[in-house]
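Predict fold of ATP-dependent RNA helicase dbp7; 780 aa.
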Amino acid sequence: MADDGMLLNFELSADAFAPKKTFKGGSWRDRLTAKKSSEWGRQKAKEREAGSKGSIPGFEEVQSDDEELILPDDQPRKRARIDEPVLSKPNRRHSLSKQSIEKDGPRRPSSIPNGGVVSSLFTYNSKAVPRNSKPEVENDVEIEPSNAPLHDELATFTNLGLSPTLASHLLKKLAIRAPTAIQRRAIEQLCSADTDAFIQAETGSGKTLAYLLPVVQRLMHLSKQMKDAGEDFNRESGLFAIILSPTRELSKQISSVIEGLLSCCHWIVSSIVIGGEKKKSEKARLRKGLNILVATPGRLADHLDNTEVLDVSKVRWLVLDEGDRLMELGFEKDIQKIVSVLNLRRTKAMERVLPGLPDRRTTVLCSATLKGGVQDLHSMALKEPVSISLDENEKVDGHEAGNESKGFSAPAQLKQSYVTVPPKQRLVTLVGTLRQSFKRKGSVMKCIVFISCADSVDFHFEVLTRPSTAPVEGSATEVHKTADVELEEPSLSSRSKKIAQGTTVSEFRTQALATSWSTKDNPVQLFRLHGSLQQSTRTSTLLAYTKYVASRGLDLPNVDLVIEYDPPFSKDDHLHRIGRTARAGKDGRAMIFLMPGCEEGYIDVLKEVRQRNLTKHDADEMLRKGFSPSSGVTADRDWENQATNWQLDVERWTLDHPKHLEQARRAYQSHIRAYATHVAAERAFFDMRDLHLGHLAKAFALRDKPGSIRVPGLRPSKDDNNRANAPRKASAVRGSASASRRDRPDDDTGVQAVSDEREGRRKMQAKMKAMGGASEFNLG
Ligand SMILES: Nc1ncnc2c1ncn2[C@@H]1O[C@H](COP(=O)(O)OP(=O)(O)OP(=O)(O)O)[C@@H](O)[C@H]1O
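Predicted 3D structure, encoded as C-alpha cells:
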C-alpha cells in the first residue's frame, strides 16, 4: 500500500526499485501513487549510482514545480500529492547543507504537523529586474548636512528676537548654541509679527523649537507688560497658546521640550490633554489653570464640548504641528471645530483683553511634506499666511538646501539605500543586515526597524530575542535574563512564568536581548513598539529606547539606521520614517527592503526623495556580510549554510511551540492584509497579485501552504467569508513573483486586495484615531 506519507519516506536503496513492477489491487489512486513512487525511486537510484548525490538517512527530498522540498511526516497523509515532477539536484545551491539536514533530520517528524514544506532559501528565487535608469550608486560623496545648526556669526538667537535670558538658557541648559536655517526664519518672523505662518522644512530640522521659541518669547514679553501694568502673570491669567499634534507620543515629546524651555520662566505653566488617562484627571488639571496647552485634536474637541472650565477666549497662538499627519489621520473635522470655537469665543470675550495681549490670533501650520491634505488644512486654518521654508535653490552656509523635489525633503546628509530581497530570504536578510550593521558599529549604535503591522512586530520580536541553537559564530546563545524587562502589559502581568533556570520573567516583554543574532561580545537590546500596546507601555518603551544609548529625551536622538523592512504605505510615511535619523545635522542611514518585481518600481520614488546618496544592495551581499565568520577564513559560500541553519532553526522553533506557530501564522496573515493597504497611487509597486505567498510564508518561518494558514480569531472580513465558500485555485494562492497578471487564472486575489484594502484602511484609521492618533511608531 503506498500512500503519500510513505512516498515521502521511502528509503532509497539502489536495488529497491530495480525491476519494473506492475501494480495490482487497491484503489486506482493507490496504484497510481505506487507507480509514481517506484519511478521516482528508480530515478534517485540512478542518480546515486552516477555519484551525483548521496542519500541522507531520514531525509528525502521531493521537489515540486515550485522547487519546494517536502519533508516526511509522522502522520500518513490521506491526500496524495502525486503530480509533482521529480527533479534532480544539479548543484549544491539547490540543497540544504548536509550539516543542517542531518541536524534537522532526527527532530523533523515531530516538528511538522499535517505535512510541511521546507523550501531552500537559495533556489527558485525571483530575480531583480534589470533597470535602464542611471546607476544609483553614488555613495562616499561627502554632502554637507542641510538641517544642522548654522555657523553664521549673525545667526544668534538674540539677533533673531529672543531675550538674552532665553538665549542663554538654551545654551546652558539645552546645549543649543545656534539656530538651524528654518529656525532663523521662523523665529525672526513670529517674534515680530502677528501673521499666520506656514512652516515647511525637512525632517529633523528643528521645527519644534522654530515655533515654540517665539511662543515662549512672546509670553515672557506679555508677562513683563502685565507686570508693568500692575497685573500678575500666573497660571490663572489665561490659556494663551495651544499646540495640536497628531499623536500622543509627539504631544508628550513637545510637552517635554516646553517644560525644558519654561524652566527659565517658571511662572508660565503648560499642560497636556491627549487621552489615555481619565478625563476627570485632565479636567482637574485644566481647572488649576495653565498658559500653554499641548493636545491631540480629538481630545481637545471633546473638552471644548464638555469641559466648561476650559476657557479659550485668550488663545492667541494656535500651532498645528505635523500638518500632513493630522490630515492623514482624519482629524480634519476636529480641527475645523477647534478653529471655529476659538474664533467664536475670542470674539465674545474681546472686552476682557489683557495689556499686551495681541488682538488677533496667530495660527502656525508645520509640515515636513506638502501633500494633498496639507493644502486643505492650509486653506481651512490660515489667513493670509507667510510661507517659511528653505527654497529649492537656497544655500545654507554656502551649500544647497534639502529640497530636491517639491513637496519632499529629506536631509541632504541622509544616506538612502535599498536592498532587493526575494520573499523567501527576507527574514534571514534582515538578520544578516542587523548582524553586519551592529558588528561594524558595536552596541552603541541605534536602529529602528519598521514593520507593517502589530502582529508581525510581535512575531519578529520573539524570533529575534529567542535563544538560538543555530551554530552562528559568537552568537549570544544563552538567554540573558537580567535584560528581560520590567515593561509589561498590565493585563498580562499576572501570567509571568518560571523558566528553566528558575528566574521569573514576564511572558510579555517589550525589551530583551537579541539573543538569536547578536553576539556575546557585542550584545544588542531589542525593543518592541506598536500601536496595540497600552499607552503606558508605549511611553515607557520609547523612553527606555531613547535613554538606552543617548540621554537626551527630546525626540529619538542619535538613531543611526532606519530599516524599512516592510515598505511604507505612502511616500509621506517613507519620509517620516527615514526622518527618524540624520536629525539636526547628524549622519544617518536608511535602508528599505524591496522584493524583485514590481516593488522595484519604488526605486523611482526613493530617487524623488533624494537622488544622491542612493545605494543599491542585494540579498546575497547582505547575507554574505552578515553570516560570514568574522575571521574571514571561510569556505566558498559558507554563509549560505550559516543562513540556512539560522532559518531552519527558526522554523523548528516555530513548529515546536503551538504558541509560536500561531503567532507566525497570525503575523503572516496580518502582513498580507496590511500589504493591501498601500495608497492607490503606489499600488502598482505593491500589487497583491505579484506576491508569492508561498515564498513569503518562509519569511515567517512557516512551512504551511499559504491556503491552509487561517488563524482563528483573526478578524475575518465579509469577503473572507464569501471566499471561503468559493472554490480556491491552488495557483491563486501560490502565485509566482515572475508570472505576469495575464498568466494567472482569474482568481479572487484581486477582489481580496480591493476589499481588504478598504477594510484595512478603514480599520487602521479607526484604530489610530481611537488611540489618539498614530505616529511612525503606531503601526498596528
Ligand atoms: N538649533 C539646534 N541646535 C541643535 N540641535 C537642535 C536645534 N534645534 C533642534 N535641535 C534638535 O534637533 C532634533 C530635531 O528637532 P525637531 O524634532 O524639532 O525636528 P523636526 O523638524 O520637528 O523634525 P520632524 O519633522 O521629523 O518631526 C531634536 O533632537 C532637537 O533637540
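The first strand starts at residue 68 and ends at 70.
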